Amino acid sequence: MDQMLFQVDASIVALSFAVSMFAAWAVGNFRGRRLALDPEHDPGTKIVDATVALLGLLLAFTFAMTLERHENRRLAVVAQANAIGDFFTCATLLPGPERAELQKALRAYAQDELDAMRDYLPDAERRQVLAESAKAHTAMTETVSRAIEHGTPIALSLTNTLNNVTSTHASRTADYEERLPWPVQILLLASASAAAFLVGRQQGLASKKCVSGTVSFIVLVSLVIFVIKDLSQPRRGWIKVTYDPMVRLVDSLKE
């Protein structure tokens, strides 16, 4: 379910929320007119207020959560770029063929990581990229092992920077794989529809329609949902994680 909802574009999700809320409002308004009660004595007035308030809290907490994850992804890109740069600097201190071999491998590795960040990749291609990264890590580890066997005096620094490259890659990959759980999305949809239904019912009881207010409410909620969904999709949509640190790194590693 998470994978299926993750692949749905944010605009489609927001539009689905808007349509569901409008339909729920229309049904609620029709139901309220059928009841034909005095709105001033409607026992459900406080329930409407509570439902709208609950929807606001859910939107606020979900927005804060996705915004924090977006910031974590940005910091992960910075950390990975710094780790690759530190490893490259350490590799320049190596004598012999290991230096040229590591520098060449790191240039290709940084470029591949940048290319993977730029575009949204289907699952099959994304798994292929992860497999290529694992091969690059293995090749660099073998080169570092040979340098240590040859008695390099910077064995500790070389090992630590290599570990930072692999760990920051794993951290960035994990941050990019985090998604908005589908139960949260379903809960938001149910809360938004329930709030719209109760608002429509209350307007129906009063035999009055506040079209402008209702449309504004639905549009605002849908826009918030759009931003939340867009933030949870780092490789697509309008709000993407900046990869400028990796661009600057690749430029600095050019021969």
Report on the architecture of this protein.
The chain has 255 residues and is mainly α. The chain has one domain. The chain contains nine helices and no strands. Helix 4 packs antiparallel against helix 9. The longest helix is centred in the N-terminal third of the chain and has 47 residues. It is rod-shaped and about 90 Å long. The two termini are 46 Å apart. The relative contact order is 0.22. The mean pLDDT is 84.
Query: Approximately how much helix is present in the residues?
Result: over 70%
Mean pLDDT: 84
Helix/strand-derived category reads mainly alpha
> Runs with pLDDT <50, length 5+?
none
Structure summarized in a few sentences:
It is built from nine helices and no strands. The chain has 255 residues and is mostly helical.
What characteristics describe this protein?
mainly alpha
Present the secondary structure layout.
Blueprint: H1 2-6, H2 10-35, H3 45-91, H4 97-118, H5 123-149, H6 155-177, H7 182-205, H8 211-231, H9 244-253
Helix pairs in contact: 2-7, 2-8, 3-4, 3-6, 3-7, 3-8, 3-9, 4-5, 4-9, 5-6
